[in-house]
Design brief:
Elements: H1 9-20, H2 35-42, H3 50-53, H4 62-77, H5 84-93, H6 101-108, H7 123-132, H8 138-151, H9 153-163, H10 169-182, H11 195-202, H12 213-227, H13 229-235, H14 241-252, H15 258-264, H16 271-284, H17 287-297, H18 303-316, H19 318-328, H20 334-346, H21 353-362, H22 367-377, H23 395-408, H24 413-420, H25 426-438, H26 445-463
InterPro entries: ARM-like, ARM-type_fold
Organism: Legionella feeleii
Protein name: HEAT repeat protein
Amino acid sequence: MNKVTKINLEPIVDSLYHICKPGIGNLFRSSVVKASLLKEIEEITDPNAIYSFIPLMFVKNRMVSKLANEKVHALLNHVPPHLLNKIDEKIRNSIFSKHYHQLSKYWYNLNPSIVDSYKGHSTEFLIILKILCCHPNGYIRYKAIKTLAENSIQDAIPFLIIRANDWVDEIRILCFTTLNRIVSKEIIDHFIESLPLLKQLEIKRRQELRFDRLQLIRKIESLLATECSDALFKKINSQEILVARYAFAILANADSKIEQLLTATLNHRDIVIKVNAFNLANNQYNADRFLIYLNKVKDDKLMPIRKMALYAFIERYPNQAKGILEQALLDRSRSIRHLSRYYLKQLGISEFSNYYRDAINRQDKPIKLAILGLSESGNQQDFRFIQPLISKNISQLNAAIINAAFTMQPEGWKSVITQLLSNPEPASLKSFVNCLLENQESYTFEEILELVYKEIVLCTFATS
């Protein structure tokens, strides 16, 4: 069996197997599970432990099989839907070590008729059927998924989706036929938690027989968008980013939800969703509404969105572009600052040093960004407007000044950097290293060693 992190399962499984081990000696063994063992079992939370308990679910000892069933149930409940496919694959392909050789027979030697013993709605039976849906024997899988669907369609849906990609034709046909039959307004909400499995099924490539995989998935998505939109909007903020993206994609195809969707994703953390939302707004909104949207995202925290907004202003709203480009001269992204200067030059504006110098003098704009902008567009003489800021000894300003010194290289620029690194903050050190990587010829190896040596000496005196 696969080893489980921080848990040695062998003694625990051995103890349970010892209770139910066949043989005449078993007549004289205690059939009571010790409290200490029960506590150890209760403390197991790693889903990988599922594989060790599965054979114990089918031993003849009722106490042990029930205990194993409860543990598998608890662990299975903690498996995120997007990992259920991997759990299924691992159960089917589990290779038991010699240590579990005798115990593994309770799993591998099962007969398809075993499924007939578990017809009912009890939790215990449903868990067994779920596990049997992942058995390596195709006959057992077929009967298990069919019985599970008859007993509890809600519990069967994730396994119907997984088994719809089974390599056995009869099982795939059964699952697709069942899914096509049950997909309706009354039951569609049960598919919400299976979004990751639907997405995985969509990209599978097994040969299809007598059914259209994509047609079924589109049918489910359409019903989800119309009947379960509130749940989908919640999924957009899911920690499972692939689920969030899939929920967005489903809602994006529902025309009636576009406005709500674009509002809900304005401050989303995922760049893929933000880019898709931007493109959706570009395609769906008229000129006036798209301009309103652009003004909401032009200062977005994600650089690619700010850049897309800038391009949109340039291409679609040239009359407003000049003001937006001037604002972008102080963007925190170097590439956007370069972009804004490039397009302002197309409009006849070629001098930017004055803009940045004024921003530094007025200090009504982010000074750090004005320093970086001046270093990118100014000359060596312009560094004199930056130099007085060294006395402020502000970490973020120091980092920007180091960058400017590297870029502009005024007279004595290395002395400036040495001064700023005499008592360096992390931001200053990071700026120095980044600049050094971009301008490797600026410092000799000996100069770098001297800087490091001085820093070590200073630190030694400071701590002595």
